[in-house]
Design goal:
Blueprint (H helix, E strand, L loop, with lengths): L1 E4 L5 H15 L6 H5 L3 H13 L6 E6 L5 E9 L8 E9 L8 H15 L4 E7 L4 H7 L3 E10 L2 E10 L8
Parallel strand pairs: 4-5
Antiparallel strand pairs: 1-2, 2-3, 3-4, 5-7, 6-7
Helix pairs in contact: 1-3
Organism: Saccharibacillus sacchari
Enzyme class: transferase
Protein name: GNAT family N-acetyltransferase
């Protein structure tokens, strides 16, 4: 397994992981009709733009399996709620179901933390659906619930939880 920064040519692999992960992670949570409507092509276009026109302070990391295929990714940058340059937000992290429970998510999170510390970020937060099993992963890593908000996915309302790490300089995984 290899973790590295994403390149524009990784957009297709990231898009595939993004859609596949949504379909397995949110099965039974989000309506099947919504999940069935997810498109690798639309995500590919989105990720291609994201990787060719990055915003300052943002980064995308990918994880490759032993065959060199992208099996996970992590997207982070400046906290979108506050816009404060030393407060980071984990925008997205997805890992194919076949690669979960192998410690890869933890390694990806650590790689991101190392980068955030090098860029002098002080804190980190992530928004996650309340029903997403990843809530437990983030809490085991020391994330503390900071707030909740309602969001809409398709025709349904969901609760998102903000998990927060106040001082990433002292955070050890």
């Amino acid at each position: 397994m290899k973790i590295r920064f994403a390149r524009p040519e990784d957009a297709a692999g990231i898009a595939q992981v993004h859609v596949d992960s949504w379909k397995t992670t949110y099965k039974g949570i989000v309506a099947d009709a919504y999940l069935d409507g997810l498109s690798v092509e639309k995500q590919w276009t989105r990720w291609e733009k994201r990787l060719t026109e990055p915003e300052p302070g943002e980064g995308v990391m990918v994880t490759e399996n032993e065959r060199g295929q992208i099996c996970g990714f992590l997207d982070y940058g400046v906290d979108r709620e506050t816009g404060r340059i030393h407060e980071a937000e984990l925008y997205a992290v997805y890992l194919l179901q076949s690669e979960q429970r192998k410690g890869i998510g933890r390694q990806m999170f650590q790689s991101m933390l190392d980068e955030l510390k090098a860029r002098e970020y002080r804190s980190l937060m992530v928004w996650v659906l309340e029903q997403n099993p990843a809530v437990h992963f983030y809490k085991r890593l020391g994330g503390e619930e900071a707030e909740r908000k309602e969001i809409r996915i398709g025709e349904e309302d969901f609760t998102e939880i903000a998990l927060y790490w106040r001082d990433i300089a002292r955070l050890t995984i």
